[in-house]
Amino acid sequence: MKTAPDFEFEAQSPLPVCGVDEVGRGPWAGPVMAAAVILDPANIPAGLHDSKKLTITRREALFAEIMQSATVSIGAASVQEIDRINILQATFLAMRRAINGLEIRPAFALIDGNKIPPDIPCGARAIVKGDARSLSISAASIIAKVTRDRLMCDLSATYPGYGWETNMGYGTKAHQEGLAKLGITPHHRVSFKPIHKMLC
């Protein structure tokens, strides 16, 4: 396994190629988000890696660099869509929206994971642990995570007491305590078992 992402998968693909990654499949609250990024091969920010392996400060710095140097699109699927069509299909929907939103139409997409979303407008390849192997997917992982983290921090100001500013909607102890004390918000995924149980 590669120790750091590189441009090898991109070099093997038709151009332009976008990297695609999602964030937010597991949380109990908030949307699932995806990003699609087409890097400029002549201007790739240094230090790109799986967003989970970067500090908050480094992620924020790289986010700014990617937004300045690359073609970027962000897609989301709402809590209501997650509850209606399930989290996997909502993830595919967010990815499609991200790809379709790119100003440059990609010829190929490199997708993090082991599944390719149906009905995307280009050829694609799924890459397991792609956010640590492909620079384009690394960039997408950073864009998606920073964007969603900022959103959850904003929501935490409107709905304090759940710890979303630190847990980003995941089912941490603070989140569970908030639910027990304050109940369910419109941003909770009622199709997820822990939330669904509270409605029964």
Question: Summarize this, please?
Answer:
The protein has 200 residues and is α/β, with parallel strands linked by helices. The protein has helices spanning 8-11, 56-69, 79-85, 87-100, 135-158, 164-167, 173-182, 193-199; strands at 17-23, 32-38, 71-77, 108-112, 123-127.
Q: What's the rounded overall pLDDT mean?
A: 96
What separation lies between the terminal Cα atoms? 46 Å
The total number of structural domains is 1
- Structural class by secondary-structure content: alpha/beta
Q: Indicate the radius of gyration in whole angstroms.
A: 17 Å
Biggest beta-sheet profile: 5 strands, mixed
Please count the helical segments: 8
CATH architectural category: 2-Layer Sandwich
- Which range best describes the helical content: under 10%, 10-25%, 25-40%, 40-55%, 55-70% or over 70%? 40-55%
Strand order of the largest sheet: 3-2-1-4-5
Supply the CATH class: Alpha Beta
| Coarse morphology | globular
Following the backbone from N to C, one meets helices and strands in this order, namely HEEHEHHEEHHHH
Q: What does this molecule look like?
A:
By secondary structure, the chain is an alpha/beta fold. The chain contains 8 helices and 5 strands, in the order αββαβααββαααα. The protein is globular and about 50 Å long. The model has no long low-confidence stretch (mean pLDDT about 95).
